[in-house]
Amino acid sequence: MLRGRDQVLDALDELLAELRAYAAWENSTLETFLDAFAALLGSIENAYVNSGRPVPDDAWAVVADAVRGARFYE
């Protein structure tokens, strides 16, 4: 199981692989992705509550989840 910074690096590797495979993202431009990333990170506690998951104690895990979620967050 990945921990700490490695979780974020793994999430970024996943996103890069998806981009290279031409995956369809709702936030497919850098501008919309960064906007969604900022919005999601700003309300991440609600995202965890809404999905029935506890907020991780590890801030790196939260960032990794926000990076992954920014692909589709509105």
Can you walk me through this structure?
It holds the Pfam family DUF7660. This is DUF7660 domain-containing protein. InterPro entries: DUF7660 (IPR056077). Residues 6-74 form the DUF7660 domain. This protein is mainly α. It has one domain (5-69). Helices cover 64% and strands 0% of the residues. The chain has helices spanning 5-20, 30-42, 44-50, 59-69. The chain is globular and about 30 Å long. The relative contact order is 0.23.
Number of domains: 1
Span of the ends, CA to CA: 29 Å
Backbone CA Rg: 12 Å
- Biggest beta sheet attributes: none
- Share of helical residues: 55-70%
Q: Any low-confidence stretches, pLDDT <50, length ≥5?
A: none
- Averaged pLDDT: 94
Per DSSP E runs of 2 or more residues, the count of β-strands stands at 0
**How many DSSP H or I helices?**
4
Order of helices and strands: HHHH
Broad structural category: mainly alpha
